[in-house]
Amino acid sequence: MRILIVEDETKTAAYVRKGLGEHGFIVDVADNGLDGLHLALNGSYDLVLLDVMLPGLDGLELLRRLRLQRDTPVFMLSARDTVPDRVRGLELGADDYLVKPFAFSELLARIHTVLRRGAGKPATVVRVADFEIDFVRRRVARGATRIELTAKEFALLDYFVRHQSVALSRTLIAEHVWDMNFDSDTNVVDVAVRRLRAKIDDDFEPKLIHTLRGVGYVFEAREP
Q1: Using the 8-state DSSP alphabet, how is residue 126 labeled?
Q2: Which letter does DSSP use for residue 223 in this model?
């Protein structure tokens, strides 16, 4: 999942970006309100983390303009801690509001809550044959076998599962999982898929990750 942080405090943005990255999110950062609004309107984000006091365009005005065009979930982070401040943010359409300083564990838990309750958001648990993934608890299993994945392996599997039966090119996978433009001379995607297959497919049936020659990969349970 992709999150946009609009935050002009460099240390705060780096701290949150690092933490979210460790939990499998792809994170972009804008350090002013104008760039943040541009990215929020033109990018594809599952959630926006928005500071209130920003150069160029303050967070409340950014939120007001964003709500005219997009219903992307918005989570406000601010040092403004009065009740009127919080009410103003929520009235403009914020989905949650957390006052700085905050504990990252609370921020992460509340982000998951916002993502879960959003209309049209994907299920938190997905089952395919004997395969099960819990996106919130970050648990993966095949039957009774619990499977441990690295953060990057989980992010790759997350992307596959959320795009079941969709042909995914290596370029798309590299962009969404590694946040990079694909270099055709590298085989980072193939290596990562091979490692993921070894954990979730090699010892189980049916196989779920299939190679599409000349294209990339598709995640689906096929009839024998």
Answers
A1: E
A2: -
| H-helix segments, the chain | 10-22, 33-42, 59-67, 83-91, 104-117, 151-162, 170-177, 188-200
> Reduced to 3 states, what is the DSSP secondary structure of residue 105?
helix
CA dist 148 → 106, 164, 201 (Å): 24, 21, 13
Q: Which run of H or of E encompasses 3?
A: strand 2-6
Quickly tell me which residue has 């089952």 as its tokens.
127
Q: Which tokens in the block code for residue 88?
A: 């103003």
Residue type, 38: H
pLDDT category of residue 112 using cuts at 50, 70 and 90: confident
Question: Do the Cβ atoms of 50 and 98 come closer than 8 Å?
Answer: no
The Cβ of residue 127 has, within 10 Å, a number of other Cβ atoms equal to: 11
| Contact (CB, 8 A) for 89 and 97 | yes
Q: Are 38 and 6 in contact (CB under 8 A)?
A: no
On the CB side of 74, CA atoms within 13 Å amount to 27
Q: Which residue has the higher pLDDT, 85 or 148?
A: 148
Tens of pLDDT, residue by residue over 128-138, are 999 999 887 78
| CA distance linking residue 134 with residue 132, whole number of Å | 7
Instruction: With a cut of 80, say whether residue 193 has pLDDT above it.
Output: yes
pLDDT above 60 (res 184): no
Of 8, 122, 113, 104, give the one whose Cα is nearest residue 55: 8
